[in-house]
Structures are given as structure tokens and as C-alpha cells.
# Entry
Amino acid sequence: MHETERHRVIIAAVQTRPVVTVADICEVTGSSEATIRRDIAALDQRGDVRRVRGGAEAINPPEQTALMGRPFAVNETINIEQKRAIAQAAAELCNDGEPIIINGGTTTYQMVHFLTSRRLSVFTNSFAIAEYLIHNSRNSVVIPGGTVYREQNVILSPFGGVVASHFYAKRMFIGCQGIGAHGLMEADPMVVQSELGLIGQADELIVLADSSKFSGRSSLILCGLDRIAAVVTDAGIRDEDRQMLETAGVRLIVAASTAQADRQAFVA
# Structure
């Protein structure tokens, strides 16, 4: 991750809790402790955060806490070509008339561009996804009640929700912090709590994860591989990760590159 992106992640992270540790930031950014300590020192010198023993804290803590993890605006720029190709492949799994769940995230957000001509019933906890589909499609859009977390562009509630508990979906499309032999991983307990409720409402769980997510790690496991019907990723997936999914009985869909997808769309 570029230094500018790491700095944005650190500044956003200190809005999530009283003190963010160096280990927390290393987990989110995939960077070394030495790198993060230098970043914190530089941000402290600039007056963007306050360096404390073992981590950093906000100069002016916000009234509303944010979620742990990279902000939507930062994540949106990372591996964008792969995410768009993955989203297109995922959208092709949808059939008109089906109810689906699209969980908030920058990869799942890219699906909206390929759903504008569809007629689906879409439940989403993403403010950005809901807004785009409302203005650019005739899909039915359902959103839960709760708090809008601006940094991640999602709507979450610690109390669950009546609407979510009564919405049945053929498929749920979800991103993740990381994916490994233990299953799907996320960075924030609130996100895990919300996603666990939604997963139970869908027949099939479809994971959208670019190949870098197979190296991502977190201390929070959302669900095991046995709950996943399919993983949609890019051609950069390693052989050992292919084998891991095959052994677990998870269907693997490798999305065409952006150039290939554009050629296919032109021919169609």
C-alpha cells in the first residue's frame, strides 16, 4: 500500500476507538510495524494524529465512532480493474425476478454498473449501492434501519432489524477483509454481527474477493468455507488457494480481465 493510502487509513482508524495500536494498523494495511511506526511519527509531526505508546489516537475524537478497516474512498482505488471484472462475473449469476442481498463493500459496489437493466429485488446495507440503484435502475431496493457509517458507506444496527430478518434471498453477495482455510475474515465486530444475520437469510453465499484477499488476515472469522457456495476472484489467484477452495468444495469463478470483458461486451 502506498504511503498516502496508509496515512489515510491511520487517520480514519483513530476515529474508531480511543487508541489504535500499531498491530491494528499492520493488520489492516498489511505493512510492517516499522513502517507503521514511521507513518504515525510523521502524522504526529503534521498534527494529524497524536502518537501514544504502542499506537496513535485522534486529535479531536468524533462524536460518532467509525468502523475498523480501510475507508470506502481508500479501498475503492485499490485493485479497481480486478474488482470491476469480478463484479461483472458476479452480476451474471443474477436472474431477473430474484431476490438478492448485496453487502456493503467496494467490490460489491461495482456490481451496480451491471445491474442497471435488471429487474431484481435488492436488499443492501450499503448506502452507496442503494443510492446508485435507485437513481439508475428499476430494481426494487430495500435497506435496513440503523446508523450510516460514512467512512465505509454502510448502514448497521447493533440491534438487528425486522426488515432483514424477513427478507429471503436466493443469493447473498459479500466482500471480505480476507479469506483463508478458516473461512471469511472481517475487521470489525459490528460488521461481523450484521453480516451473520444476513447470511442466514440467503440460500447461497457468493464471495467477491480479488486475489490479494487470500493473503489478508484478521482476528475475526465471519464464517467457515463450508458456508460458501462460490468465490469470484481474478486470474491472480495462487495454485494453493485454488486447491484450498477445491478441497472445501467451494465453486471457483475466475473473472475475465477488464480487456476481455470489454471485448465480450462489444461482441454481444
User: Anything to note?
Assistant: The chain has eleven helices and 15 strands. The chain has a mean pLDDT of 81. The first strand starts at residue 20 and ends at 21.
